[in-house]
Amino acid sequence: MPPDSPAPSWLPPGRPLTVDDLETLPDDGHRYELIDGMLLVSPAPGTRHQKVVLQTAFRLEQVCPDDLHVLAAPYAVRPSNTVELQPDVLVARDEDLTDRLLPVAPVLAVEVLSPSSALSDLNYKKAAYQRLGVPSYWVIDPQEPTLVVFELDEDGRYELVAEVKDQDAFEATRPFPVRIVPTELLGRLGQSRM
């Protein structure tokens, strides 16, 4: 939840939340994430969002090297007791994965925008992924098919390296070569406006 939002009554008062607190939250179809003890709540995603997640994961999986894995949410990135993120799609090293979660930064985090998540994805999560040292961060807008790509520079800060729209292609080199065309991520939905 953004810092100025009132806390629901089921949250413990007066302290930052921990990953243990996440275990007590209701199983109500929302995605619950923590950034430095601050709760982010996202409602169940819509059709275009889910299609883009599926197509992105599929395209990455098709060319993923054997020492890396592509996973889709819900799957926890939990580097500390006060941070748990669930990128819509992530790529992680084989040796970094556990049976339940990823305790270190992925090599790629992908967030697909929803009306309720745009502020978090472009600000809070971008800053968190940068602090964690995620080398590549992609943000995809399924409404106006766009892919925005950030990569860490030599100083460990995200720099915008690409913004492609509609039928334009992004030829990724990190974490491995893959070609992404925003409208293709919508599959048949790209032929109509939902």
UniProtKB/TrEMBL annotation:
The keyword Hydrolase applies. Keywords: Endonuclease, Hydrolase, Nuclease. Transmembrane segments: none annotated. Residues 20-177 form the Putative restriction endonuclease domain. GO terms for molecular function: endonuclease activity. InterPro entries: Nuclease_put_TT1808, Restrct_endonuc-II-like, Uma2. PANTHER family: SLL0198 PROTEIN-RELATED, SLL1222 PROTEIN. This is Uma2 family endonuclease.
